[in-house]
Write a structure and sequence with these properties.
two-stranded antiparallel ribbon
Length: 78
Amino acid sequence: MAGLPISPPSPLPASDVVEKPTTSPGIRVHDVSVALEGVTVLDKVSLDLKSGEILVLQGSSGSGKTTLLHAIAGFIPI
């Protein structure tokens, strides 16, 4: 089998390409609140991200960045 040329797959014709709609958010969070050990660490956080958008979570240590990500991922109850 050595020495046999391998050609790349042919691209799809333009008529066969399906684009995903970008009008609906990829992630929607509405009024998320989280309390840990009786302390509210997130209070009514909301955001809408469309597919392909990039969000930067910036804040001091203990401000709730990781807690928000864990809540979105379903690792902690909201």
